[in-house]
Design goal:
The chain is of the alpha/beta class and 323 residues long. Helix content is 48%, strand content 13%. Strand 8, helix 10 and strand 9 form a beta-alpha-beta unit.
Length: 323
Amino acid sequence: MTFTAIINNIQAANHHPALIIAPMAGITDTVFRQICKKHGADITVSEMVSADGLHYKSDNTAALMKFHSSERPFGVQLFGSDPVRLAEAAQFAFDTVKPDFIDLNSGCPVAKVVKRNGGAALMKDPKLFGNIIESMANAVPIPVTVKIRSGWNKYEWIDEELARIAQGSGAAAITLHPRSQTMMFTGHSFWERIAVVKKCVSIPVIGNGDVTNGQHAIKMLDETGCDAIMVGRGTYGNPWIFAEIKAALNGETYTPPSMQERLSAIIEHIRLYRETHGERRACGEMKKHAAWYLKGCAGANAARQRIFTAQSSVEIEEIIQRI
């Protein structure tokens, strides 16, 4: 199925553009993706998967591609800088887990990715960028999409050029996070760049950046004409954001989760994470999630202090239950 067909089917069924949970390293594992899907996400994407890691047969890297059937439509996001290895990684991902699409990360601004010429560093070499997309698209029978930023330096935008290259090289869709690499995650993203890119290509354009509630989603759609919306940091401790956005898009009243519903969700998240990944990872990784869920709750600061010193995920549960 083409990527255009995927998002068109979602829009036809729901009467609004598709909502996608952004790939975020260390956050959007299969457990969190399942929870977001339960609360209204339409499409899910894996955490960043290193093509080099797959080349060297890293079990930990390959494990990042695992997903639950409830997450479909699901995409595996790859990063790297070698066209051959990325094509091999795309084929390996397709053969191993059968995702619905493959995504190329050309937007991650983090130093440890950029210094290996991956992520946003690909923007500095448009020819290589195009070669990678073409190699990946030729390697698999499913859509290959790409996620980019608007440029390396603020106001030195090259998103139009990259979008045209991506389309000409076989990309099935483009996600634009309209910040520069140097901005990292600071300031507000330049949504007008999404509108510019939308006008210069015929493939779907997905808007990403600073959508943290339903009204933001409506505003992005109105200002950019994007074909779908990707939500990232707005999901931190708030998987209900997808339900909120859908209510706003459908002109319905949204009722936020009660305190008890929020606390129950934390417990559910902890237990599913422990069941999926084991106690050691659950104890370490669930601390940040629990702290995010508690934002705005009475007594949250004191509870966070206890959570960050907890010695087990069960202890984190007990702290939550005492609230």
